[in-house]
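dumping this here before i forget
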Amino acid sequence: MSGTRRRAKKKVTIIDDVLETYRLWRIRKTLSQMCRDRGYIVSQEELDLELEDFCKQYGTEPSSGKPTRGDLTMIFMHRDNKRNVFVFLPKEARLGIKSLKALFLMMRGLNCTHAVVVIQDGVTQMAKAAIEDFKPLFLVEQFREPELLINITKHELVPEHEVLSDEEKKELLQRYKLKEKQMPRIQTGDPVARYYGLQRGQVIKITRPSKTAGRYITYRLAV
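structure:
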């Protein structure tokens, strides 16, 4: 008789389903707010979706597929450039080639080149390589689920941020007679920069409260 035994599959309890439903609701809410703050058109109904309404609409038994992560897929159009962003939650714990191929096919069908992917437990090496290889065609941003359980921009210690348009950036540099290399910087990997989807070369305006001036404004260049 073999000494190796299969590990018994963990039994899902009602509490597990309740907690998972709450997690999925929180993630969806943060994603909706994040897309709105990036300039995408998000309905007020979506932004105001409370846990009770989420449960009525999608169910309260994730272990039985009510809801599935696929049910939480969303697509939003940008109010300025009319381009779409595709929000995708793969069912696999680790994002692999199979899910990535499915994502690219859906994006192509929707004429969409930008996706936000919410990952449970990392990305396989092959999928990482494919994401890099396909960057000229598809931009795939990756967030882990724990990062989206709260909206970091709502924290009282995080000041107001606003991404400048290309024209606003040009006017800023001209007004202060600045070159890009002279500007303070922010890493694209910074949590707030990732929330706003900052790309290299973009400028973000940061407004902080000031006891003397009322407010204090700074600008940072994404690098």
